[in-house]
């Protein structure tokens, strides 16, 4: 179990310049199985690992996050209960200027969307932005997953 505070910033990706810096890639499937106030409960399958994550409401760049490993078989069943279509993406890990970035390339319902996230140790932490990072979308409601599903082309067709 991982408990704590998540502090992250999210950006659109403006070019392919990150591809030559990838150190690791993995395919993820995410399902939203519950909402409460401004929080959510997510299930994720990544290969032979699965997690159940509870995220609290955002307060600036931070939010409470509790993550628990669960059996993949349980996660697969929970994905079938997702209240929105299951999202598929490949997460690429990129190291840049002493910072670890996660570049998510969506497939299926959100195919064509590419977002970069960086987790911070503190909200006021300064980072150098790579040239392949575009506009910051941290906290913009239209870039929350449920809202993306409502407006992205093809998002009404489940991809399970």
Automatic annotation (TrEMBL):
SMART domains: CYTH (SM01118)
InterPro entries, sorted: CYTH-like_dom_sf, CYTH_domain, NeuTTM/CthTTM-like
Domain CYTH: 4-152
Source organism, top-level taxon: Bacteria
PROSITE patterns for the chain: CYTH
Matches recorded under PANTHER family: SLR0698 PROTEIN
Entry protein name: CYTH domain-containing protein
Native species: Lutibaculum baratangense AMV1
């Amino acid at each position: 179990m991982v408990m704590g505070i998540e502090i992250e910033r999210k950006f659109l990706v403006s070019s392919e310049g990150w591809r030559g810096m990838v150190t690791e890639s993995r395919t993820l499937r995410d399902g939203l199985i519950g909402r409460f106030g401004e929080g959510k409960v997510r299930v994720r399958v990544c290969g032979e690992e699965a997690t159940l994550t509870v995220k609290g409401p955002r307060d600036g760049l931070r939010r409470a996050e509790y993550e628990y490993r669960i059996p993949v078989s349980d996660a697969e069943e929970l994905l079938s209960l997702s209240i929105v279509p299951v999202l598929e993406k490949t997460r690429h890990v990129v190291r840049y200027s002493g910072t670890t970035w996660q570049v998510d390339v969506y497939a299926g319902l959100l195919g064509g969307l590419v977002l970069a996230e960086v987790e911070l140790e503190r909200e006021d932490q300064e980072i150098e932005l790579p040239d392949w990072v575009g506009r910051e979308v941290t906290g913009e409601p239209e870039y929350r997953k449920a809202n993306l599903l409502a407006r992205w082309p093809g998002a009404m067709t489940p991809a399970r």
